[in-house]
């Protein structure tokens, strides 16, 4: 194995796949958190097209944003990831 592969595996174990891969592709976390939650329809293809990242990196970004509550899932099929904005109500609860 090459040193690059070892570093990637280490980053995967540490949970820093987004940071390592995104920095290589020129995308920052600020861009992800600022732009993506404002989209009406959020899919893997939308993220990869607009942010110019790979599909696997876009899927990981969707997981991170959903886990943090910035976007919500529209459908329940695992192969089709469709999300939308998480709109907060007046009382602070999501709609």
Our estimate of the beta-strand percent is 5-15%
CATH overall fold name of one domain: Arc Repressor Mutant, subunit A
CATH homologous superfamily (4th level) name of one domain: Winged helix-like DNA-binding domain superfamily/Winged helix DNA-binding domain
Distance between the termini: 48 Å
Number of helices: 5
What is the rounded Rg? Answer: 15 Å
- The neighbouring-strand order within the major sheet is 1-3-2
Just name the CATH architecture of one domain.
Orthogonal Bundle
Q: Approximately how much helix is present in the residues?
A: 40-55%
User: Which structural category fits the helices and strands?
Assistant: mainly alpha
N-to-C series of helices and strands: HHHEHHEE
The strand count comes to 3
- The average pLDDT score comes to 75
Described by the principal axes of the CA atoms, the overall outline is globular
Please provide a written account of the structure.
The protein has a domain at 27-85: Arc Repressor Mutant, subunit A (Orthogonal Bundle). Helices cover 52% and strands 11% of the residues. The chain has helices spanning 3-14, 17-25, 29-35, 44-51, 55-67; strands at 41-43, 71-73, 82-85. It has a three-stranded antiparallel beta sheet with strand order 1-3-2. A hairpin with an 8-residue loop joins strand 2 and strand 3 (82-85). Helix 4 crosses helix 5 (55-67). It starts with a helix and ends in a 10-residue tail after the last strand. The model is unreliable at 10-15 (pLDDT under 50).
